[in-house]
Fold:
Amino acid sequence: MTKKRTSLEDVFRPVQVATAREPEVQHPQSSREDKRRPAVKQQTVYLPLPVHEQLRKVAFEEHAKMHDLLIEGLDLVFTKRGLPGIAELTRNRVKT
Structure:
């Protein structure tokens, strides 16, 4: 038994929509509406390979995440410059 080949006309024939009703669109909640997760901004960091490897080893040895160590480092940078630390910045963010 041979199978009939699909023609280009069949492929490009306009599809008829069963109903004229527009589909409901689900809009994602804005970060202000979502009270469970604080507003965050993603940032890419480019690390030299030896720095990345050392950070990875420290995180493994301390059973920590590399992200947490980077945040700890940023907190030290802010504190050294007399700026509010991450805990203070995020605490103020939640209250507003």
